[in-house]
C-alpha cells in the first residue's frame, strides 16, 4: 500500500464518520416516526439513489458479476443484516433520548474492529496501538461501573458495526455496487414489514406531512453517502486504522447529546471519555509514523 492510497483511505474515512456524526441531529427530526418505518424508507430510497448512480456510471456489469458468485452475494447479505440491525438500534436510541448510549457504542466499535482484525485477519499492533487498546478497555470498564449494568444499546451497536466492517472488508466489490446489493438484500424484510403494517391500516411510505416525506427521502440519500465512503476506506486501510478513525463519529454524537439535546451526563463518565481520547492520541501518533514510512 503506497502513501497516496493510505491518504485517500483516511480521507474517505473522515468523510464517512463526519456525516455519521451529524446523524442524531438529522434523525431527531424523525423521532415521531417509528424506527422500523424510518429503516424501511432508508433502505428503499438508498437503493433507488445508488441504482441511479450505477446507471449514470454504467457500472451494472459489476453488479451482475456478483450475482454470478453466490458466496460474495451471501457475504453482502450478511453485511446488510448487520448494518440494518445497527440502523434500527441507532434510530431507537435517537428517538428515546439515548444518544449518549449510542455514542458509547460507536466508541466501543474501534475496539471490536481491532479485536476482529487480530483474531480473524491476523493483523498486528505495535506498542503504541496496544496502549490505546488498553486505555479503551479501561474506559469500557469505567462505563460499566458507572452505569451499574451492561449497556445493551452500546454493545449491540458496537458488535453489529464492528462485524459489518470485517465482513465488508473481505468482499472485493466496489463501494457503489456493494452498497446497492446490501440495500437490495434489505428490501424483502422491509416489504414484509410494509405489508404487515398495511394490514394494520398504517402506511409506511405515504405520509400527509410533506416535510416528513422529504426527510424520509433524504434519509435514504444520506444513508448512501457515508456507507460508500466507508466501504472505500475499508478497502484502502487496515481494520485497526479504520476502527480508530471511528472516534470522530461518537465524539460528535456525544457533544450533540449533551450540549444540544441536554441528555444527563454523570461526571464519572467523563473519565471514560478522557481515557478514550488519550488512547486516540497514542493511536494517531502511531498512524502518523506509519504514514511517514510509507512516504
Say how many strands there are: 0
Q: How do the helices and strands follow one another from N- to C-terminus?
A: HHHHHHHHHHHHH
Shape by Cα distribution: globular
**In what range is the share of β-strand residues?**
under 5%
Task: Output the structural class.
Answer: mainly alpha
Provide the gyration radius in Å.
19 Å
Give the N-to-C terminal Cα separation: 10 Å
Main β-sheet description: none
Please mark out the parts with pLDDT under 50 across 5 or more consecutive residues, or reply none.
none
Number of domains: 1
Helicity level: over 70%
Mean pLDDT: 86
Number of helices: 13
Description:
With 295 residues, the protein is mostly helical. It has 13 helices and no strands. α1 runs parallel beside α12, α3 packs across α10 and α6 packs antiparallel against α12. The termini are close together. The mean pLDDT is 86.
Task: Summarize the topology.
Elements: H1 3-21, H2 23-27, H3 35-57, H4 60-67, H5 70-95, H6 99-119, H7 127-147, H8 152-169, H9 175-199, H10 210-234, H11 239-245, H12 248-260, H13 269-294
Helix pairs in contact: 1-10, 1-12, 3-5, 3-9, 3-10, 5-8, 5-9, 6-8, 6-11, 6-12, 7-13, 9-10
Amino acid at each position: 500500500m503506497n502513501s497516496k492510497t493510505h491518504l485517500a483511505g483516511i480521507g474517505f474515512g473522515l468523510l464517512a464518520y463526519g456525516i455519521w456524526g451529524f446523524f442524531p441531529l438529522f434523525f431527531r427530526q424523525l423521532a415521531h416516526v417509528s424506527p422500523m418505518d424510518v429503516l424501511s424508507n432508508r433502505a428503499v430510497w438508498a437503493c433507488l439513489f445508488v441504482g441511479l448512480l450505477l446507471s449514470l456510471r454504467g457500472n451494472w456489469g459489476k453488479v451482475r458479476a456478483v450475482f454470478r458468485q453466490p458466496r460474495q452475494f451471501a457475504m453482502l447479505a450478511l453485511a446488510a443484516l448487520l448494518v440494518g440491525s445497527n440502523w434500527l438500534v441507532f434510530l431507537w436510541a435517537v428517538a428515546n433520548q439515548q444518544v449518549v448510549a449510542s455514542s458509547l457504542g460507536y466508541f466501543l466499535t474501534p475496539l471490536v474492529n481491532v479485536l476482529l482484525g487480530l483474531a480473524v485477519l491476523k493483523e498486528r499492533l505495535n506498542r503504541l496501538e496496544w496502549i490505546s487498546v488498553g486505555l479503551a478497555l479501561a474506559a469500557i470498564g469505567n462505563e460499566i461501573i458507572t452505569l451499574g449494568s451492561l449497556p445493551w444499546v452500546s454493545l449491540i451497536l458496537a458488535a453489529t458495526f464492528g462485524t459489518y466492517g470485517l465482513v465488508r472488508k473481505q468482499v472485493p466489490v466496489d463501494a457503489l455496487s456493494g452498497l446497492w446489493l446490501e440495500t437490495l438484500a434489505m428490501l424483502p424484510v422491509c416489504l414484509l414489514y410494509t405489508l404487515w403494517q398495511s394490514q394494520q391500516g398504517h402506511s409506511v411510505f405515504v405520509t400527509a406531512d410533506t416535510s416528513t416525506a422529504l426527510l424520509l427521502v433524504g434519509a435514504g440519500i444520506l444513508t448512501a453517502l457515508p456507507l460508500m465512503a466507508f466501504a472505500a476506506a475499508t478497502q484502502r486501510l487496515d481494520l485497526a486504522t479504520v476502527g480508530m478513525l471511528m472516534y470522530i463519529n461518537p465524539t460528535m454524537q456525544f457533544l450533540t447529546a449533551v450540549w444540544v439535546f441536554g441528555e444527563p451526563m454523570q461526571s464519572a463518565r467523563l473519565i471514560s471519555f478522557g481515557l478514550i481520547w488519550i488512547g486516540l492520541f497514542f493511536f494517531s501518533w502511531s498512524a502518523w509514523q506509519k504514514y511517514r514510512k510509507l512516504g
